[in-house]
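Sequence only, no structure available. Ideas?
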Amino acid sequence: MSSGGLDSVRGVAPTAARTGGIPVCFRPAAPPVLAPRPCPAHVPLAPAQERMWHAARRGRSADWNVARAIRLRGAAVDVSALRAALKLLVARHDPLRTRYPATECGPAQQVIDPGDAVLDVAECVIGEAELAPAVAALAEQSFDLTRDLPMRARLFVLGPDDVVLALVVHHISVDGRSMRPLIRDLVTAYSACRAGSAPQWAPLPINYTDYTLWKHEQLGEFTDEWSRATHQLRYWANALAGRPDLLDLPVREQPSTPIDPVAGALLPISFDAATHAGLLRLAQDGRASLFMVLQAAFALTVGAFAHCSDVTVATAISGRDHRLLDDLVGNFSDDVLMRVRLDRARDVEELLEQVRRVALAAYAHPDTPNPRLKRCLLQDAALPLFQATLILQRADAPRTESASAQGLSITEVPIGVVRAKHDLEFGLADHYDPLGAPIGIDGSFIYPIARFDEATAQQFVARFRAVVGLLADGYRGPLTALAANTARGPSLNTVRRATRVLV
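Reply:
I predicted one. Tokens follow.
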């Protein structure tokens, strides 16, 4: 090519020669950078916040309260230092001083200046017998997200060296992984205030508003048919089309006196080290994760319980897919759905492969808010998107709080309130020894008492145990035999004997 010809190409696409021959106009835009940025007049909700904002508008704000209570004993507890530490905590983390009003542009985040943020803190002298009801009552108080700060605290003073600090934060401002930096920063601030100094915190590299704007820049607008937001919405609308609107679960007769629909009860569950190791072997053989194995067992159990071969189960994802988000307090997590077609899997291997593919696709489309998705599905908007959820988290290693070195012991106090926002919900944690060997899985099953009595809930847990036990023992046979035997709810040994011939 002559120099004149090369110059004419450069006249159309000046950088084509430096980008592998791809004209600038056809190159994808560089991904947005997560960094501090100017704050606009209107800051929308992050995708993870939309569901609880709409729930609060319907009068269900308290369903999304996140409560923690810690007991400080040993050295003389400095209540004034605790108050000062809480004020510093609210100043450090923007979501703890954010209101969420409705505006002409939609629901918004409105961050209050630290000097104007007045935290709801009260100090109460209380007896041991009064403590549990008082903590539970605090946990059940709703927030008006349009005008209240989304956090309140109470100092329950049981003695000069015995104080319980109860914190209630609305889920719109925190998620499960927020509690570690929140409590850590609170302990650091208390230790500093007690010593009359400022807390030595590392500065936060960004704030939650920066994250929100970055996330929306990533997703684009739903009005743009080529945006990532539209792509994800289209995926979910196609993936969930034609599924059953509601699982036919064996619910209890409704009592004459109405029961709070999210009042829940809890059943503990655990699996020993041998079962844990067996599940990991299955995961390795199937190129899957431990979570995928448990989710496959869960979907099969739900299907047997509801006599349905097309079940939608869910899990929560952390949403903290960038290292700068690790130390932030805020709500990044959201639910993703997994539609499992049990009738399209003949045996355990095919079921696990289906769950693996469905889970990976769900992880790749994590940002569609539930209220928007409901509007795109041909189902009654009053019905839930899912009724069954299983969450697996890696258990934290035991650790000693820094304040213990100062003669102050810090222990957790049970809240005493169980909220069941879904019909069937497992919260599990897997445990490992210091060398990484599996030592067991434990957690709880939560169910709404308005929907199920304890006997029915126990039966469901027994079925799940049976399926998990068989998979850990090496059962790889047909799903029909596995589901049929566990659906009758016999003991685990009976199920093993009945299905061993099929292995």
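Residues 325 and 471 are 36 Å apart (CA to CA).
Hope that gets you unstuck.
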